Amino acid sequence: ANVPAAGQGADVGKKIVGRKRSVVIDTTGLLLALLGTAASIQDCTAGETLLKPSFPRGGGKTRPGPLTRAPPPRHDLRDLLDAVLYVARTGIPWRYLPHDYPH
Fold first, then answer.
1. DSSP H helical ranges for 27-76
2. Burial class (CB in 10 A: 0-12, 13-18, 19+), 38
3. Does an H or E element contain 81, and which?
4. In whole angstroms, what is the distance from residue 91 CA to residue 79 CA?
5. What pairing do the DSSP bridges indicate for beta strands 31-38 and 16-25?
6. By three-state DSSP, how is residue 64 classified?
7. What are phi and psi of 25, to 5 degrees?
8. CA distance 64 to 15
9. Exposed / middle / buried, residue 25 (Cβ in 10 Å: 0-12, 13-18, 19+)
10. Sheet of 31-38: strands edge to edge?
């Protein structure tokens, strides 16, 4: 489909002009969320946009939907997401996380 020039952008690092698609899938490959953005939008910004509703900051100790019968998590879900992203970004083992993050 043709996208108007106002909805396009350029990602110089990836040499992409136009639009990018960001997806969230589970471990079985099931599509959970999809977001189309201008190519000039950074991948981390699109990822945060997709994941923030699932991991609210502060008070995110309850789970929506059918999992409400489960006991509440011991840690704030957003803090756990931040820890996972830190490990993925730095490449360190989980046990070497700074003490600011939940273990």
1. 43-51
2. middle
3. helix 77-90
4. 18
5. antiparallel
6. coil
7. -125, 160
8. 39
9. exposed
10. 9-11, 16-25, 31-38
Long-range contacts of range 18-27, CB-CB < 8 Å, 24 or more positions apart? Answer: 20/46, 22/46, 22/47, 22/49, 22/50, 24/50, 24/51
Report pLDDT digits (tens) over 37-86.
Answer: 887 887 778 888 887 776 666 555 555 555 456 666 677 778 888 888 88
Which residues, at least 6 apart from 29, have a Cβ–Cβ distance to it below 8 Å?
none
**93 pLDDT more than 60:** yes
Which candidate, 58, 97, 62, places its Cα nearest to that of 78? 58
The pTM for the full model equals 0.43
The β-bridge partners of 23 are 34
Expressed in angstroms, the distance from the first to the final Cα of the chain is 46
